[in-house]
Amino acid sequence: MDATSDAGYDTGSGSGPTADEHGRRWGRIARHPSGWLVAGVVGVGLVSGQTATGPGPVPLLGAAVAVAVYVWVMRRVAGRTTPETARQGAGRELVLGGGIGLGFILVPVLLLTVFGGYSFSLAGHGFVSVLWATVMVQIGGSVTEELLFRGLALQALEVLWGSRVAVVITSLFFGIAHLGAADATLWSALAIAVEAGVLLGAAFLWRRSIWFVAGVHFTWNAAEQLLGIPVSGHTPEGWFTLDVHGPAFLTGGGFGLEASIVPVLVGAAIAVWMLRRARRSGGIKPRAHAGR
Questions:
Q1: Considering its fold, how many domains does the chain have in total?
Q2: Of 48, 91, 163, 177, which residue has the fewest beta carbons closer than 10 angstroms?
């Protein structure tokens, strides 16, 4: 009788991994950069898909929910802190980023206007209604895109392969993501990869703030929309109507300013300046252990 009891006990002990072992295994998978990257992209992507083009303040509310989802994934799934979404100093980062983004757009627009490539006329749309719609849509788009590309993708790839490789990969994907826009070409995708992907990646490495890169992104797109310039191939209602004169390589053609060589050169120059500042402040990191 004792022998039977011992045999039954031995059989049960070899039945397979325990619940604790399964939990530890899934925990390791979730805390791997690829694990929390996928979780974050799914969560933030679902929020963005449901709210980005919604009416009224829906994109703004969607941006707030997306930030909450991002913070939850990073803290509960990845086991990481989120200083990049800190409330303290957020206003300063938004204003600083917004100023750089506005300057980045106005300098090429001014140059193209002075040399005859662009001319503007009043569109006749309501001033307040256009401003409201622009702010709501561009806040939603800029915040969610920066959470996806700089908050999640860049930081996950940075852990795996370091900051420089992370910026290159996220920049290429940022350009590819815009190939589906109207009038998009391989050149427009490459232009966006440089002037947007590299610039915004460098901005994040320098300031390590989602608010800063979202500020750059927001004023950039909002200024284009208000001036009547197509935003990545899309032409929403603005305060002005744009007339384009000259070769598409200089003006951007139907895709808009982002396919012009002028902002590519301006954006590359700003990105180099930011990368230098990031290197001095220790913002450019080597490859870390994937499990961190």
A1: 1
A2: 91
